[in-house]
Write a structure and sequence with these properties.
Layout: E1 4-6, E2 10-15, E3 18-29, E4 33-37, E5 40-45, E6 50-56, E7 61-65, E8 70-74, E9 79-84, E10 88-94, E11 99-105, E12 110-119, E13 125-128, H1 172-184, H2 189-199, H3 229-240, H4 262-275, H5 286-293
Antiparallel strand pairs: 1-3, 2-3, 3-6, 4-5, 5-8, 6-7, 7-12, 8-11, 9-12, 10-11, 10-13
Length: about 300
């Protein structure tokens, strides 16, 4: 799995429906990271990219890049990408073979990338200091309001806003994608659990669309870093059979999460040792799945 490694810790704040990640110190991209923005897959990489913060929204994502750092965004399906608020040297490539943005920051500032469903067709590329080939169209001046002598009609009292329906909330697929981004940043299980609870609108881990009831049959190999319903089901099994993940907080009975961390590995090793499963490595493979299914 691609990972983003933080030099110190990561503080997470939710700005629904977007998710903002900001480090107590900076985040350094060491390998490619895959983001899904507005249904478009983007590969983000940069061997010298020092990111002060990154925000993933429903239709775009933005980041703060320190001066002198570089970053590259690639749309594998050749989607057109719009970039705003450029404060550095930028090179665009958008043709019938690739869609790539290469950016080198010259000052700290927020850059927003908005992918489109439109695809690059003919060859066109550009670059240079202060923003590359990105252009903006001047706004059309507003038309002055017409003068009228008709007496003003008393304003109608505003209708109270209708609370947002559950359909406006993020889907399970979107939430799991966000949790995957958190994991790639090196966030621990406590942070994952808090963000998961906030995204599902509950005070703690839920049994809603993201964390459904335990699966009936385990089908996947699981290890540290795995995410999903089968991880939560495994934690529920271990907690229910005397191999407790944690006494309190994330992973404890009733607070199981969808992230396979070091505590899950330790509990699984106790189970493997008790059942005579070798090697006792904390890896949930075919032999351990068979033992669990036989319980």
């Amino acid at each position: 799995m691609p990972r983003m490694i933080a030099r110190a810790g990561i503080l997470v704040a939710l700005f629904a429906p977007s998710l903002a990640l900001a480090g107590a110190s900076d985040v350094t991209l060491t390998t490619d990271t895959i983001l899904s923005v507005g249904g478009v897959t983007l590969n983000v990489s940069g061997s010298s990219a020092t990111v002060a913060s990154i925000t993933v929204n429903a239709t775009n994502f933005s980041f703060d890049l320190e001066s002198g750092s570089s970053i590259q965004i690639t749309a594998p399906s050749r989607n057109v990408m719009d970039v705003s608020s450029l404060t550095g040297n930028t090179t665009f490539t958008c043709d019938n073979s690739s869609s790539v943005i290469k950016y080198v920051g010259t000052a700290v500032g927020t850059v927003t990338v908005t992918p489109s469903s439109d695809l690059c067709a003919s060859s066109s590329s550009g670059g240079g200091g202060g923003g590359g080939s990105h252009t903006t169209t001047p706004a059309t001046p507003a038309t002055p309001a017409a003068t009228t002598t008709t007496p003003a009609t008393p304003a109608t009292p505003a209708t109270p806003a209708t609370p947002a329906s559950s359909s406006s909330r993020l889907s399970a697929e979107q939430i799991n994608a966000i949790l995957g981004v958190l994991s790639s940043f090196g966030a621990d299980s406590a942070v994952i659990a808090k963000v998961q609870a906030a995204l599902t609108g509950a005070g703690g881990p839920t049994t809603g669309s993201v964390t459904s009831a335990a699966v009936a049959v385990f089908k996947s190999d699981l290890e540290v870093g795995s995410l999903g319903e089968e991880v939560k089901a495994l934690q529920q099994f271990l907690n229910g059979h005397g191999y407790q993940i944690s006494a309190s907080g994330p992973g404890s009975p009733g607070n199981e999460t969808t992230m396979f961390g070091s505590l899950t590995k330790a509990a699984l090793m106790k189970y493997q040792k008790a059942k005579g499963i070798t090697p006792v490595a904390g890896y949930f493979g075919p032999k351990t799945r068979a033992a669990v299914s036989a319980e």
